[in-house]
Write a sequence for this structure.
């Protein structure tokens, strides 16, 4: 379970968000500039809240009153960025293996096979990121995060840099991931239709404030990409 | 043009040794400094930046003289090093290496700094979220991506070191077999009545080494661009 209660001033913009998530996929919904990315950057530990706390499964990750700030590399929270951010000097296989090596985890061929199959990237292993299409890159980024065995997976508009055709290509993988991988996710999107397909719970954000919380039905009445 | 004489060979080999040692010893410091200048904000950063570039604009004889004052036998650092570690720079080839290292340092640091600045910091963030501690991020992402820049800096630094003259001759003089590099050998030869052809040979060798270094540096720079684009 993820508990977030933070405030952060970013220039003129102030972010104040409190929510708890128990769902398998928490959809963080809002227009661009609503503070979605800042919020998950705080969950990932890339950004420090000015005030407040973040806890995952009972473990405090941030607590400004107790001066606790667990650095990103000790959080075991995976992050799939909008731009895949694959390491350009490593091939796909090495990219996928990166998290395992950094966390000094034992090799796990079964898991490796399961994830490369799930994402259909088994045939790309020897390629360099520069030789991949946008959709392939995003799938590899997803696999790379999953193989670092995170406790929670953050996804920041993972389909945002893809055109309509590619989105349709990736969405089924995300749904499969939700149903098969067993890792809780926080999924950021400004696209209500997309969230209806993947999310199990919604946190709606507007102008740096949480305006609605609940099931996917809170999305009704919102235009497809408001 | 006749053959290269033993004295000339001595000068060539000494120059190579001095330049190689100077470059190898300076590189780790160069990387550390380049990283500091590229990635950190601290008080006195612009002063440090200027100090690194100082040997580029200062008259070499001034740098040599300052080295003599600091690392000479009675110099503050020189005396301490000689007493405690047995390292002597004055009038030794090690002194020539030190002078070359200092003089080539700005040329070494610059390409490394530029290549570190060119690295997308978001890649380093991504590495962090995958469980890499800051030193692991440096070793597995920053350093490999900066490698072509590091090599380019080393090549340029080496080329500068091998041609260094002013600071070296001021600091460690011009002793054949100990501190007489190609440059100081040429300087001696053109002051000798029939040293012209020997000087010409060494001049050609200098040109060949310098050209080779520039071409290699250019090649590494191109590799760097390719690497950063992931092909």
């Amino acid at each position: 379970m993820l508990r977030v209660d933070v405030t952060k001033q970013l220039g003129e913009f102030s972010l104040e968000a409190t929510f708890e998530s128990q769902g398998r996929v928490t959809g963080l919904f809002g227009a661009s500039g609503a503070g979605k990315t800042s919020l998950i950057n705080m969950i990932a530990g890339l950004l420090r809240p000015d005030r407040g706390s973040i806890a995952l499964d009972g473990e405090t990750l941030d607590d400004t009153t107790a001066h606790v700030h667990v650095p990103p590399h000790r959080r075991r929270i995976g992050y799939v960025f909008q731009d895949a951010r694959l390491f350009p000097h490593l091939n796909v296989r090495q990219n996928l293996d990166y998290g395992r090596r950094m966390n000094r985890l034992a090799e796990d061929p079964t898991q490796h096979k399961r994830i490369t199959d799930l994402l259909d990237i088994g045939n790309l292993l020897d390629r360099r990121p520069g030789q991949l299409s946008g959709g392939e890159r995003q799938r590899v980024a997803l696999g790379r995060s999953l193989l670092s065995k995170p406790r929670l997976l953050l996804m920041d508009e993972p389909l945002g840099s893809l055109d309509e055709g590619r989105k349709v290509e990736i969405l089924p993988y995300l749904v499969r991931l939700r149903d098969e991988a067993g890792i809780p996710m926080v999924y950021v999107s400004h696209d209500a239709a997309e969230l209806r397909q993947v999310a199990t719970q919604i946190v709606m954000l507007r102008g740096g404030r949480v305006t609605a919380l609940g099931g996917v039905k809170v999305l009704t009445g919102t235009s497809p990409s408001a | 043009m006749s053959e290269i004489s033993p004295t000339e060979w001595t000068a060539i080999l000494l120059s190579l040794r001095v330049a190689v040692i100077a470059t190898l010893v300076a590189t780790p410091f160069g990387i550390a400094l380049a990283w500091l200048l590229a990635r950190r904000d601290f008080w006195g950063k612009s002063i440090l930046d200027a100090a690194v570039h100082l040997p580029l604009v200062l008259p070499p004889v001034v740098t040599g003289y300052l080295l003599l004052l600091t690392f000479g036998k009675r110099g503050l650092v020189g005396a301490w090093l000689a007493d405690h570690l047995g390292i002597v720079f004055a009038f030794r080839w090690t002194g020539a290496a030190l002078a070359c290292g200092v003089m080539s340092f700005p040329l070494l640091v610059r390409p490394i700094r530029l290549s570190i600045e060119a690295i997308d910091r978001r890649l380093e963030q991504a590495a962090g979220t995958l469980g890499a501690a800051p030193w692991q991020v440096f070793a597995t992402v920053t350093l490999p991506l900066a490698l072509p820049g590091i090599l380019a800096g080393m090549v340029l630094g080496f080329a500068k070191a091998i041609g260094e003259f002013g600071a070296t001759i001021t600091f460690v003089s011009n002793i054949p077999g100990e501190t007489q590099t190609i440059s100081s050998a040429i300087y001696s030869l053109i002051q000798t009545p029939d040293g012209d052809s020997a000087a010409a040979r060494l001049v050609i060798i200098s040109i060949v080494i310098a050209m080779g270094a520039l071409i290699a540096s250019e090649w590494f720079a191109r590799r760097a661009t390719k690497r950063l684009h992931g092909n």
Observations:
- The mean pLDDT of chain A is 89.
- Chain A has one domain: 2-219.
